[in-house]
Design brief:
InterPro entries: Homeodomain-like_sf, HTH-type_TetR-like_transc_reg, HTH_TetR, Rv0078-like_C
Radius of gyration: 19 Å
GO molecular function, one term: transcription cis-regulatory region binding
Largest sheet: none
Domain HTH tetR-type: 11-71
Distance between the termini: 62 Å
Number of helices: 10
Order of helices and strands: HHHHHHHHHH
Structural class: mainly alpha
Number of strands: 0
Protein name: AcrR family transcriptional regulator
Keywords: DNA-binding, Transcription, Transcription regulation
Shape: elongated
């Protein structure tokens, strides 16, 4: 890295640690990965890791934040590609479920995330990403009269929990037809919310 400034070198080291940490956490799980393995994969020292992160949990936090941001961007892009608010909502929910069934995303975001960071910290990251989009979409639909007037916060949590649980179930099922069945069930559940 001779042509890079110190700041660029630090940023590159941080990106490398996050990339390699993500790869290892996704394939092996948080508990199975040691700091020695992470720094060896990144080609840096433990001192370099500790310069950027307080430890393995802090690195995992950065990885989880990155994964949740990527999922949120996918959901938002899918929803924003639609014209109608209801279609935006349903397309966004389907995009979340599809994205969260990726085994690597699941392992980091749904399995290890709450276990490693604790429910409150995991929930705060989720709120900043996909959950915020879900809450915003529900609020807009309630305001527009497409969904019956009701508090949006509990509805958002119920839907989020249902989709997270479905993603975990899909990971364990291993049957290709289950994805199509789950998306159909999700569509029926969402349609039941719609005011006729």
């Amino acid at each position: 890295m001779p042509n890079l400034s110190r700041e660029q070198q630090r940023e590159q080291t941080r990106r490398t640690l996050v990339r390699e940490g993500r790869r290892l956490f996704a394939t092996q799980g948080y508990a199975a990965v040691g700091l020695s393995e992470i720094v060896a994969a990144a080609g840096v020292t433990k001192g370099a890791l500790y310069h950027h992160f307080d430890g393995k949990a802090a690195l995992f936090h950065a990885v989880l934040a990155q994964v949740q941001e990527e999922v949120a961007r996918r959901v938002a892009a899918t929803a924003d590609a639609q014209d109608d608010p209801w279609t935006q909502f349903t397309a966004g929910c389907q995009a979340f479920l599809t994205a969260s069934t990726d085994p690597q995303v699941q392992r980091i975001m749904l399995v290890d995330g709450p276990a490693v960071l604790g429910w409150a910290q995991w929930r705060a990251l989720d709120e900043a990403g996909s959950a915020r989009h879900l809450s915003d979409a529900l609020g807009a639909l309630i305001e527009a009269g497409a969904i019956a007037p009701q508090p949006g916060a509990p509805l958002a949590r119920l839907l989020s929990g249902a989709m997270n649980e479905a993603a975990l179930w899909l990971a364990a099922s291993g049957r290709p037809q289950d994805m199509a069945d789950t998306l159909a069930a999700l569509n029926r559940m969402l349609t039941a919310l719609r005011v006729r």
